[in-house]
Amino acid sequence: MTDSGSGDATDQRGGTGVLAWVDARLPVVTGFRHEYIDYRTPRNLNGLWNFGAILTVVLLVMLATGIFLAVNYTPTAAGAFASVEAIERQLPSGWLLRSIHVTGASLFLAALYIHLFRGLYYGSYKRPREILWLTGLLLLVMVMFTAFAGYVLPWGQMSYWGADVAGKAVDAIPFVGPWLEHFLQGGDAPGDVSLHRFFVLHFVLAFAVLGVVVLHVAALHVTGSNNPLGIEPKGPRDTLTFHPYYTSKDALGMILFALLFAALVFFLPHVVFEAENFRPANPLHTPADIEPEWYFLPFYGMLQSVPSKFGGLLAAVGSILILFLVPWLDRSPIRSARFRPFYRVCMVLLVLCFILLGFVGRHHAEGGWMIAGRIALVYYFAHFLVLLPLSARTERHVVLPESIAAAQGHHATGHDA
Ligand code: HEM
Fold it and tell me: Transmembrane stretches, by residue range (predicted)?
């Protein structure tokens, strides 16, 4: 008789029950406890550290609502618009699920920008968190492609003409541009083939994002979180267990975020839905104003601020690529902008320029907007290529707090571990 252990649910660690049996063979419970309950986290994280958890939950909501939309959607130029209308008007709660998906996309990108600028401000990209930063940027790029592909799917006027503008941007690449545009689009203009490809891309990338999030969070748990002071925890006094302290903080952040989400879905749908996209795609009628979703506007502003089309494309693509170099462009020994007065001013200007470029995108970089766009664009690149490396020189002698607990006024007592 073989010893299958079937009659005995006791594992080597002494626990009983099904979970203990599974855990002894695949430590899901121990792993979860280790990574999300007993996990030590700096005690001073502020509200900006809520956005990673918010992003994770919104991603799951997007996948769930997306599957529902996908099973009712027709990825053909003739059927797409009508199938989305049917979801809105005929399927029970279809309007709600679609509204959650569309609002979720906007709020996901908003949370992503906050998450990214938080990392830049507090120097979370610095050693030893470079891979965390790089996986984050990979997520940014993947999410942008996913959002763009998703926007094309309803095959409304903006979907069609947005795809057309993107195709024209690719077309501007010297030598290979026209061939590449034709290859990606599957024809001379957006049509059936492109729509089918966008659908597959949207679906596949969305799930791939989930996979990269797992890597991102795994990398985070190797180094632990950075914090607003930018100094590493020196002992148990500088940290708290993830549960109950950060589970409750994250829950509060999510409730506030959910309130905003619900307000948009139920009371302000026009904020996230573009009226022009309720007209079916018409290749013979160009809308007066072709404009991407708000979250692409800063890049659209960059595209337009440069006189040459290819130059504009290089600027927009370069503005993302340059972020991959940040851990190596910034040589300062200090992480957090809290102790870097010069860098702090530069960061504020960077955010202002990014927002300004968004307005430039909205105003099609004409007249004064063109000049503003060019100044903001030059600042954007100067920030990373000149000011960031320079700032390191002014910060060699900064004195940092002795520890996180000490900075918060908690001094060592005989009871401390
Ligand atoms: C799908 C998108 C993303 C998800 C779901 C996600 C998720 C998370 C989570 C759960 C955390 C821990 C909580 C927190 O610090 O807020 C985190 C931390 C972090 N993420 Fe992301 N992230 C995403 C995209 C990005 C992007 C685009 C970047 C930047 C390029 C980035 C950079 C970082 C950094 C540097 C940290 C550590 C921050 C610190 O401890 O100071 N992430 N992320």
Answer: 48-71, 100-120, 132-153, 199-220, 251-273, 310-329, 341-361, 367-388
